Amino acid sequence: xxxxxxxxxxxxxxxxxxxxxxxxxxxxxxxxxxxxxxxxxxxxxxxxxxxxxxxxxxxxxxxxxxxxxxxxxxxxxxxxxxxxxxxxxxxxxxxxxxxxxxxxxxxxxxxxxxxxxxxxxxxxxxxxxxxxxxxxxxxxxxxxxxxxxxxxxxxxxxxxxxxxxxxxxxxxxxxxxxxxxxxxxxxxxxxxxxxxxxxxxxxxxxxxxxxxxxxxxxxxxxxxxxxxxxxxxxxxxxxxxxxxxxxxxxxxxxxxxxxxxxxxxxxxxxxxxxxxxxxxxxxxxxxxxxxxxxxxxxxxxxxxxxxxxxxxxxxxxxxxxxxxxxxxxxxxxxxxxxxxxxxxxxxxxxxxxxxxxxxxxxxxxxxxxxx
Length: 371
Hints:
By secondary structure, the chain is an all-alpha fold. The protein folds into 2 domains: 37-164, no CATH class; 171-346, Cytochrome c-like domain (Cytochrome Bc1 Complex, Chain D, domain 2, Orthogonal Bundle), CATH 1.10.760. It is 30% helix and 3% strand. The protein is built from 14 helices and 5 strands. It has helices at 76-81, 88-92, 99-104, 117-126, 129-138, 150-164, 171-176, 185-194, 240-243, 275-283, 285-291, 306-309, 316-324, 335-346, and strands at residues 44-45, 51-53, 61-62, 214-215, 252-253. The strands form 2 sheets. The protein has a 3-stranded antiparallel sheet with strand order 1-2-3. Strands 4-5 form a two-stranded antiparallel sheet. Helix 8 (185-194) packs across helix 14 (335-346) and helix 10 (275-283) packs across helix 11. The longest helix is centred in the middle third of the chain and has 15 residues, at 150-164.
């Protein structure tokens, strides 16, 4: 469960901040992995699928912006990049801190018009000469600062993400390409379980090892939840947040397993710290849910938020609803077979791992510090 605006540091060293800048709420869901988001067959992004390819609004996508989505977006990755900029606890900040959050939370008949934010962000970029030159070099239709718009900005973010986090160089890929020595015997046994007895491939299918569908698997819930305006308490009903269809209650998107060893913790909220524990949950979700311990969450210290971190676990009715919604059936595997599955998942890690092509810059044009 991530730390957004107000936090300090990056990765496992990120803290909840201090003083007036400390976080006011935990991010309710685990940050999504960036691997292979540019794959052309991806039709849905985010745990609840709130960014989806669709022409329901006449612009190619179904998103929180609805008809207000800007034109000229290159792909679904660029579309998704628009929204963290507008969310209070991710990047926008708290009311009273800056003009961006003021525009998002403005009351009146046009309240929550998130498209108000994008011109303000664009104006800031236009005011940084080095960024202007970079955008002029990258886009043929930019000749002056006023030519830059939010579409250029998020298309650039998407191009960076796709360039940096495309990965199809794993031992598993080498095996599929004909190198039968690329996998160990244990990994081959794990692969056979994955596509056979363990039934993992019924959902984790295709090149990305995800069918991009939504399932309820009874992951233990905690934290602030991803509540709807009328929810009476902290909870996360998953896909139903977007569809308002009770059949989607507690369902979350099947994650890709590419480079899964690099993306701990696991589950839509990071409930499990290891691959073995999340596999065990899939094998017997009701048992694992009932035996889950709060220390597995390994939440960053934020004493001012701890009173609500696990309050949902005491709501028996909510817990019963979660367990009764589970889509998957228990499967019996012994410890050796589980270890073989873990070995196979390790083979999905690219040879380059986290050593990305561009790496970390020495500085950025805005002058902001780099952690």
